[in-house]
Design a protein that fits this description.
mainly beta; 4-stranded mixed β-sheet; 4-stranded antiparallel β-sheet; about 15% helix; globular
Length: about 250
């Protein structure tokens, strides 16, 4: 396969993944007609032309130490594909065990070596994004679809107190009209807005973009968006709740 055909094949696969994720979130409903989330993520691994797995990296704010830390991973979630310039925005995923334990994926030579060394039960959406050029890759591997929750990367500094951090999220989809979202508007398993007094802090993402705290108001069971503009219809509304236990 020539280089152009290979690039087009990878581009087509990425577009299909983006479409499948969006279709599943927007289209499936339970017996009562409420949104029902079967999966929201198809984890992928990209192969570089050197035949090694692509390792993405990014920085995040650790709420325990109030410091900036680095996170690396070869596992990603497709956010948006741009056919014009052959680029894709990826969200970095962290594979974790059922207890939330994890080793540093980037220290293994091959991804299979990592997965054989730990029983991975879930993937965490880190909220860390990277933009890459599709022409840099020669292959793509898709893992089984999962319901990936938002969370803070763990194990980046071998912090013995990392279990003090609890994360949860609320997920809804904008109808392009309303600015207030209740528990009943959330997707199954991601449909609870807790009392703000019971959490340490919250982050609001609209279509993957972090919103300033002044743009929204939270009370138990209700999110109100304070901006003049309403989120575009079909936009993902994700509230990430972080609780630090003392």
């Amino acid at each position: 396969m020539c280089s152009d055909d290979l690039n087009k094949s990878i581009l087509k696969t990425l577009i299909e993944i983006e479409s499948a994720q969006k279709y599943n979130i927007e289209s499936f409903k339970d017996e009562l007609g409420k949104p029902c989330l079967k999966y929201n993520t198809i984890p992928i691994i990209l192969m570089c032309k050197s035949c090694n797995c692509y390792i993405g990296s990014g920085i995040f704010n650790d709420p325990l130490t109030c410091s900036i830390k680095c996170f690396k991973t070869p596992i990603f979630r497709v956010i948006r594909v741009n056919c014009e310039d052959m680029t894709v925005i990826l969200e970095l995923l962290q594979p974790q065990t059922i207890k939330g334990d994890i080793s540093n994926v980037s220290c293994f030579c091959e991804v299979c070596e990592f997965f054989s060394s730990a029983t991975i039960n879930k993937f965490i959406r880190t909220g860390i994004y990277t933009k890459v050029n599709i022409n840099c890759f020669c292959g793509i591997e898709c893992l089984q679809p999962v319901c990936a929750k938002c969370g803070i990367p763990k194990g980046c500094s071998n912090n013995p107190y990392i279990d003090r951090v609890e994360t949860s999220e609320y997920v809804s989809i904008s109808d392009g009209i309303k600015k207030a979202y209740l528990n009943s508007d959330g997707i199954e398993e991601f449909n609870v807005i807790p009392d703000p007094l019971t959490i340490s802090y919250a982050n609001l993402f609209i279509n993957g973009v972090l919103q300033p705290p002044s743009y929204y108001t939270l009370i138990e069971g209700k999110l109100t968006i304070n901006t003049e503009d309403v989120p575009i219809s079909g936009s993902y509304i994700i509230l990430q709740f972080i609780k630090i236990n003392k």
